[in-house]
Amino acid sequence: MKNGFSIKKISGRRVWDSRGRPTVETEVLLNNGGFGRSIAPAGASTGSGEAVDLRDNNQACGGYGVNNAVANVNGEISETLLGLNAFDQKHIDQCLINLDGTENRGRIGGNAMIATSMAVAHAAADGDKKPLWNYLRDKETHLSKKIVLPLPEIQIFGGGAHAEGHLDLQDFMVMPYGASTFSEAMEWTAEIYLAAGSIMDAQGKRFGVADEGGYWPVFKSNEEAIETLVKSIELAGFSTEKQVGISLDIAATQLFSNEGYFLKSEKRLLNNDQWFDLMLNWLKAYPIVAIEDPFVEDDFTRHAKLLAVINTGVESGKNNSIELVGDDLLVTNIKNIAVAKEVNACNTLLCKPNQAGTLTEARLAFEGAKENGWNTIVSARSGETEDVTIVHLSLGWGIEQLKVGSFSRSERMAKWNEMIRLEDRLGSDAVYAGGKPLGRNETS
Ligand code: PGA
Ligand code: ZN
After folding, report:
1. What pLDDT, on a 0 to 100 scale, did the predictor assign at position 442?
2. Per residue in 244-284, pLDDT tens?
C-alpha cells in the first residue's frame, strides 16, 4: 500500500440539491491527512437500467429522504472501507459493489455509493497533493499526453421532465465548437443566452427557468423552440454552420407509450415510423451536431437505423458529422455499450458516474466507448450541487465533451467556472477541443 493512504474515517451527512431535495454527502479522511468530500447528484428522467438512489420509504421530503442512505455511509460502508487503501479505487469500488450485492444498487443505495466512491478519489488526490484531475490522469497512464479542455454543451431552453412538460424535448443546447479557447466558448454562450432572453422578452414568452437553468418558455411547438435557438445564435453574431452547433436531448423514453410518441405541447401523437421521420427531418433542417436519446431506451433497432442514415450522410446531408448520443440507451453501463456496439446503435457515450454507481464502473464505460471509437461526454444530472468532480473527470480521463446544463444557477456555473480556473492554470499545456464534435476537419 502507498504509505499513509489507508482510510481513517468515513462520514456521511444529508445535504440538499438544486431542486431542494435531500442528497448524500460523504467525507473521507486518510491517515496521511488527505481529505475528500463529494455529493451525489440525482436524475429526473432516469434510464431504467441505471443505479438507483436509496430513498426513505416515508412521507418526509416528498419521499426523497436519504436518511437510510446516509446511515449506510456511516454504518456498513464505513465499516467495510476503514483501513483500506484509498489509492486503490478499483478495490474500494469492488468492495462497495459486493457490499450492496444487487444489480441496481438499491440495497445500500446508488447515492451512498457514488458519493463515497468519488469522495475516496478526492481524498487520495489530496493525500497525493494533487488536484483531482491530475491524480486521475497520473493513474491512467495509457491516455495520450495532451490535456484537452472539453467542448461544452449548454442548455438554453429546458423542457421535458425538467419543466413539467412545457416543452416536450428535454434539452435545447448549443455547442460553441468554433471558439478557440474554453473561456471564449463560455463568452459566446453568455451572448447566446442573453440573446435568447431578449427574443423571448420581445415576444412575451419568458417564463422562469427549468431544472437545469435553461429558459422555460411558452412555445407553440418544439420546432419553434429549435428555430428560436437558431435565431438566438445568429442574433448573438455567430454562424450556425461554422461556429456554434445545436444539440438536442430528446429524452424520448419520457415521450413514449404503447401508443407511440406524444408531443404534449403540440397534442401530436406519432407512431414509430412517423417519429423516425420527424427525427430525420430535424437533422436535415437544422444545424444539429448532436442528438441524444432520439428513441425509447430499448429501441436499439431504430437508433441503429438513424445512425446508418447519418453515417452515409446521404439523407441527412451532413456527411457523418452528427453525434448520436446514448444516455438512457446506455446508462453508463458496459453491457449496454457492448449491445449498442454490436448493432451500431450510437457513436457517442453520455457518461454519468451516478448511473454506473461507482467511479470504476464509469471509467469502464468510458474505456468501452473509446474502444468502440466513439466520442464521449461527461454529464451532470438535473439535480445537482456545488460538487465539481465531473469537471476533473473530464480533464483527467480525457473526456472531450462536458454537459452540465445551462448558463445560470450556481450548481451549473460552479462547473463552468471550475473549468475556467483549470484552463487558466494550465495555460499552454492544455488545448480546447474545438471543431465540430464529429467531422472536426469540416470546420474552418
Ligand atoms: P437527468 O437529465 O439528470 O434528469 O437524467 C439529464 C439528461 O438526460 O441528460
Ligand atoms: Zn439525456
Report:
1. 44
2. 999 999 999 999 999 999 999 899 999 999 999 999 999 99
Half-sphere exposure of 358 (CA within 13 A, CB side): 23
Q: Which atom of ligand 1 approaches the CA of 379 most closely?
A: 9
253 Cα to the center of ligand 2, angstroms? 10
Q: Which ligand has the shortest distance to the CA of 161?
A: 1
CB 17 within 8 A of CB 53: no
What number does the ligand 1 atom closest to the CA of 162 have? 4
Residue spans of beta strands (DSSP E) within 107-244: 147-149, 151-158, 171-175
Query: Residue 156 in contact with residue 232, Cβ under 8 Å?
Result: yes
For residue 327, the CA-to-ligand 2 centroid distance in Å is 5
- Ligand 2 geometric centre to CA of 295 (Å): 11
Task: Check if the beta carbon of residue 134 is closer than 8 Å to that of residue 80.
Answer: no
Indicate whether 204 pLDDT > 50.
yes
Ligand 1 atom closest to 405 (CA): 6
The mean predicted confidence, pLDDT, of the chain is: 94
Distance 356 CA to ligand 2 centre (A): 14
Cα separation, 18 vs 41, whole angstroms:
9
What residues are in contact with ligand 1 under a 6 Å CB criterion? 43-46, 170, 249, 251, 327, 379, 381-382
pLDDT digit string, tens, across residues 97-133: 999 999 999 999 999 999 999 999 999 999 999 999 9
Residue 375: strand, helix, or coil:
strand
* Pairing label, strands 375-379, 268-270: unpaired
Does pTM top 0.90 for this prediction? yes
pLDDT digits (tens, 9 = 90+) for 28-41: 999 999 999 999 99
- Three cell numbers, residue 23: 442528497
Q: Supply 376's cell numbers.
A: 464521449
In this prediction, residues 332-347 reach a mean pLDDT of 97
> Phi/psi at 275 (nearest 5 deg)?
-65, -40
Instruction: Give catalytic status of residue 145 as yes or no.
Output: no
Domains of the chain are 7-129 (3.30.390.10), 147-432 (3.20.20.120)
Q: Would residue 352 show up in a list of annotated catalytic residues for this protein?
A: yes
